[in-house]
Design a protein that fits this description.
This protein is mainly β. It is built from one helix and 28 strands. The protein is 3% helix and 45% strand. A hairpin with a 4-residue loop joins β15 and β16. The longest helix has 9 residues.
Length: 341
C-alpha cells in the first residue's frame, strides 16, 4: 500500500527563475530505496532497495512492473542502457548483475572489485559499462566480450573515485569525482586521463552527472556546493549554492533545464540549469542524502524521504525533452576511429 503525502510547492529563489512545481504523488512505505536509474524513455524507474531487491516501477502508476534478481546485500549502484535493453545493479559484495528489463533474464555477472560498487554507467553505444568501486578503482567492462573480467581498470592511487559517469553522447569519455580537488576525465579505451574538473575547494566530489545533450556536467561537492562545467572545455560555468552539508547525488532533468541535488542536510533542491537559481526545495528527505532521479518523460522525480520510503513527485509543467535523440550506433568502425584519434 502507498500513502499520498502533502503537497510540496515550488519555491522560486529569485524573480525570473523558470517556474516549477513539485507535488508529492505517492509515498510507498514498504519500499526503502538506495539507488535509482531512469529508463531512456517513458516513466519507468529501476529502484534498488535496502534488502537487496530491485524492481522496475512505473513512476506514473506507482506499480511494480518487474522484480529482478535479489542481491545478497544492498545495491547502491544502478544504471539503464540508452537503448533500453540492459539494466545494471551493483551491490556491497562487489557483485554486478546485468539483466533484461523486459524479461528479467540475467545477461551477465561480474565480481572484479574487492569492495562494494558505488556507481555504474553504460556508454552511449552499450559496448561498455563502467563501475566505480569503493576500492578506489574504476573498472571498464567490454560487453561485446564474453569475458567475466574487466577489459581494463583505472586506479585511483589514493584519489578515491566517486560517481564515474559516461558522457551520453561521446561513447568513450568518462568523468569522475575524487576525494580531493574536483574531478578527472578519462578515455575509457586507453584509460588515459584527459582533463581535470577544478572545483572551488579541495574537499571532494561524490557524484558526477551529464545533461542529456552531453554538453554540460554537474559535480556534487562535499563542501555543499554543486559546480556546473562545460563538458567540452571543462570550464566552470557556475555554482549551485544553498545546501548546508554534503551533496551526495546530482541529476539533470530529461530536457536538461533543471538539476536536482540530494544532500545530507535532509533536503533535495532543484535548480535552474542555466541561471543556477534554486527553484524548488523539498524538505524531510533522507538524512543520509536522497538519491535523485527524473523520469525520461519528464513527469516524475523519485527521491527517498526522511523515513527511508520511496517518494514519487509530479513535475508541473512536464520536463520532457522536445525530441528524443537517435541512439548512437555501436559499430566496430566507430571504435576504431576513436582509438585512432
Amino acid at each position: 500500500m502507498f500513502a499520498a503525502a502533502l503537497l510540496i510547492g515550488a519555491t522560486t529563489a529569485r524573480s525570473g527563475a523558470t517556474p516549477l512545481n513539485v507535488s508529492t504523488a505517492a509515498v510507498i512505505s514498504y519500499l526503502h530505496p538506495v539507488a535509482f536509474a531512469a529508463a531512456p524513455t517513458g516513466s519507468k524507474i529501476l529502484v534498488c532497495m535496502e534488502d537487496g531487491t530491485a524492481r522496475i516501477i512505473d513512476g506514473k502508476t506507482h506499480q511494480t512492473l518487474k522484480t529482478l534478481t535479489k542481491h545478497l546485500q544492498p545495491a547502491y549502484a544502478a544504471a539503464w542502457s540508452a537503448d533500453g535493453l540492459y539494466v545494471a545493479t551493483g551491490d556491497e559484495t562487489a557483485r554486478i548483475f546485468i539483466e533484461s528489463p523486459l524479461s528479467g533474464a540475467m545477461i551477465r555477472q561480474y565480481r572484479t572489485h574487492t569492495k562494494g560498487i558505488q556507481k555504474l554507467s553504460f556508454n552511449a553505444t552499450r559496448q561498455y559499462l563502467i563501475s566505480t568501486g569503493k576500492d578506489d578503482q574504476i573498472n571498464i567492462y567490454d560487453l561485446s566480450s564474453p569475458s567475466t573480467r574487466e577489459a581494463r581498470k583505472i586506479l585511483g592511487k589514493g584519489a578515491n573515485f566517486y560517481g564515474a559517469s559516461f558522457n551520453p553522447t561521446l561513447p568513450y569519455t568518462v568523468s569522475t569525482g575524487i576525494l580531493g580537488p574536483g574531478g578527472r576525465c578519462y578515455d575509457c579505451v586507453s584509460g588515459r586521463q584527459t582533463g581535470f574538473l577544478v572545483t572551488q575547494n579541495d574537499e571532494g566530489v561524490f557524484d558526477v552527472s551529464y545533461n542529456p545533450a552531453g554538453t554540460r556536467l554537474v559535480t556534487a561537492g562535499k563542501c555543499g556546493e554543486a559546480d556546473v562545467f562545460d563538458a567540452r572545455t571543462l570550464k566552470k560555468l557556475g555554482a549551485l549554492k544553498g545546501h548546508q552539508d554534503f551533496i551526495m547525488y546530482a541529476a539533470y532533468s530529461a530536457n536538461g533545464n533543471f538539476i536536482a541535488t540530494g544532500s545530507t542536510d535532509r533536503t533535495v533542491k532543484i535548480w535552474n540549469a542555466n541561471t543556477f537559481d534554486k527553484v524548488v526545495e523539498m524538505s524531510n528527505q533522507s538524512p543520509v542524502a536522497s538519491p535523485v532521479c527524473f523520469t525520461a518523460d519528464g513527469t516524475t522525480l523519485a527521491t527517498v524521504n526522511a523515513d527511508g520510503f520511496l517518494q514519487l513527485s509530479t513535475l508541473t509543467p512536464t520536463q520532457a525533452p522536445a525530441q528524443t535523440p537517435a541512439p548512437v550506433t555501436n559499430t566496430k568502425k566507430s571504435r576504431r576511429h576513436r582509438i585512432a584519434s
